[in-house]
Every structure is written in structure tokens, then in C-alpha cells.
């Protein structure tokens, strides 16, 4: 294949370890902010964003969703939050504090701006996670964390997705620790493992080239993922549309048997990718599903840190940061697919970097 380093989007994907480092360094600031907010008494938390930033919010909220914390947690696209939730929150603010954490690479996305303004009017506490210093979100949220290293020259969110996902996870961990809930995570170790795993994936792009070539004739992709991996299945599915103009869908892995298996009829057009993590409680069941799919005649590839994987994910840490490793090979595959289909991934069609109208 041609020299990939000439593509801006490729070089941005190789920068994930650096961005993880910069985002990880924000933990103590995030913990300080969370401490101030929690001392005011927060009874509900909203994680809000659009597009990839919404999926980053969903991933970042996982430690809260998997915990016994009494604070209710909701994750919403900014438009949904604005039209269907903000009124409810307004009525509840008096009975205990509400916190809205906004995730936005640009910090300028229209729905995020509307939702932020409305939240502040109603007394909701606000935090912004963004890659853009001086953006609307940075200037107007009560607290703002900016990771400048994550702003992309290219249109697609790749390293910024990783950064926002990580900031969300760090915020969730900080909230849990402040509530004396043991998250059982050695953060320094996990961040080191994450940087190593990402560098490892980037040094093996040849194997991913092989997969991109092998699957080039497929018209559609479905990414099957359980639990904490589901947000990256959504993100990968968006990237298959944005970068290689390929129909794609994210499915909670074990949901596949509930109707999706009718696609066996069109299996020659469909590529399944099953994501599974050996530490996940449903791992054995996902492995059985994967074997069943192959036996039935689906073209299915297993991406896992299990040695039985078709593509081995070099991850040996816990379940909260693992998904950031899983997204990178999927980014590379859709990028390579785009080139193989004759597109220039640095010149995206039909999408805008920032959505400024609603
Ligand atoms: C992010 C986003 C991207 C999408 C498109 C428009 O908004 O929705 O996910 O790919 O480029 O913008 P934000 O993070 O800047 O709010």
C-alpha cells in the first residue's frame, strides 16, 4: 500500500498515546473540581455530547453506571437533553443539585451551546470537557478542562474521542472515590498500559491492512460488543459511515440472536466484527456467539485480548480503559478501507467539522 504517513488522519491516529498522556495528567484537576461539586450535594449527573463526543460521554460514564452510587446518572445526546430532559431537571434542582458534564471537541456545537445555556439558567452546575481553548464551552461552563493536544487538523474525531472518553472516565472515577466507593483501579498503571497498547496497535498496521483488503467486498459492517465495549462499537460504526461511506451498525453482542440473525440471508454482503474482553463477565458467552456465527456461515472476526482472537488486542488492564484500545484498530480499518475504495480520507465528503445550526 502507498505511504500512509502522508495522510493527516493517519498521523492523528498514531498520536493517541500522546493524547492519553496529556488527558491522564488532568486527573488531579478533575478530582479537585469533583470535590467542590460533590460538597454542594449533587443528586444527579448528566453526561452530554453530540456524535463521537456523545459516545465518549457514554463510555466515560461506565464506572458510574456499574457502581452502587446513589447519584443518578444519565447519558444523553445534547439535542435529547435539551428537548426532553432540561424541563425535568429544572423542577428538581431545588431538591438537590444537578450536574451536567458537556463533552465537545470544538466546544461550539449548536446543541451543546443551547443545552449549556439552558442548564445554567436553571441552576444546573456545568462542566465542559473540550479540545478547544477559548471555545464557547470553555468560556461559559462553570468549570472547564481543555486538552489542547487533542484538537485535530482533520475533520474526523479520533484522538479527541480517546481524550474525551478518558476525561469522562477520570471524572467518573473521581466521583466514585469521593463517595468512598472502591473502583479497584491503579490509575497510573492503567494509563501506562493504555499508552503501550495503543503504540503496539499502531506498530502493527500491516495486519489491519490485511483485514481491510479481505473485507473490501462487503457492503455493510455490524460491530457486536457487550457492556463497556458498546460505546466504541457505536463510535466505530459512525466512523465506517464517515470515513469509508459504509453502512454499519452497532449491536449489543448477545442481542444478535434477537432478530439480527435473519441477515444470514444476505451474509455475503455483511461483515461482522465481534469485540470481546476476557475480563468481561459475558466473555465466555460472547465467544460462544462468535463460534456459532462462524458455524452458521457468517463472515465474523473476533477482536479480543483472548488468544483465540482473529485480531489480538494487546490489553492486560481492567475493563474501564480497555475500550480506548479497541477503537484504534477499527479506526485504521475504516481509514484503509476508504483508500482501497478510492477515496481520500483527508477530504471527507458531506460532513462538517462543527455543526453550528440545528
Ligand atoms: C462532534 C461532531 C463529530 C462529527 C462531526 C460533527 O462535535 O458531532 O462527532 O464527526 O464532525 O461534530 P463536537 O465534539 O465538536 O461537539
Mean pLDDT comes to 96
Give me the Rg, rounded: 20 Å
The CATH superfamily name of the largest domain is: Glucose-6-phosphate isomerase like protein, domain 1
Number of helices: 14
How would you sum up the major sheet?
5 strands, parallel
Question: Can you tell me the CATH architecture of the largest domain?
Answer: 3-Layer(aba) Sandwich
CATH-defined topology of the largest domain: Rossmann fold
Low-confidence stretches: none
* First-to-last CA distance: 40 Å
What does this structure look like?
By secondary structure, the protein is of the alpha/beta class. It folds into two domains: 181 residues, Glucose-6-phosphate isomerase like protein, domain 1 (Rossmann fold, 3-Layer(aba) Sandwich); 138 residues, Glucose-6-phosphate isomerase like protein, domain 1 (Rossmann fold, 3-Layer(aba) Sandwich). It is built from 14 helices and ten strands. Strands 2-1-3-4-5 form a five-stranded parallel β-sheet, sandwiched between helices. Helix 13 links the parallel strand 8 and strand 9. Helix 4 packs parallel to helix 9 and helix 11 crosses helix 14. The chain is globular. The chain starts with 7 loop residues before the first helix and ends in an 18-residue tail after the last helix. 50% of the residues are buried. 1-O-phosphono-beta-D-fructopyranose binds next to helix 4.
Condensed summary:
The protein is α/β, with parallel strands linked by helices. It has two domains: 4-184, Rossmann fold (3-Layer(aba) Sandwich), CATH 3.40.50; 203-340, Glucose-6-phosphate isomerase like protein, domain 1 (Rossmann fold).
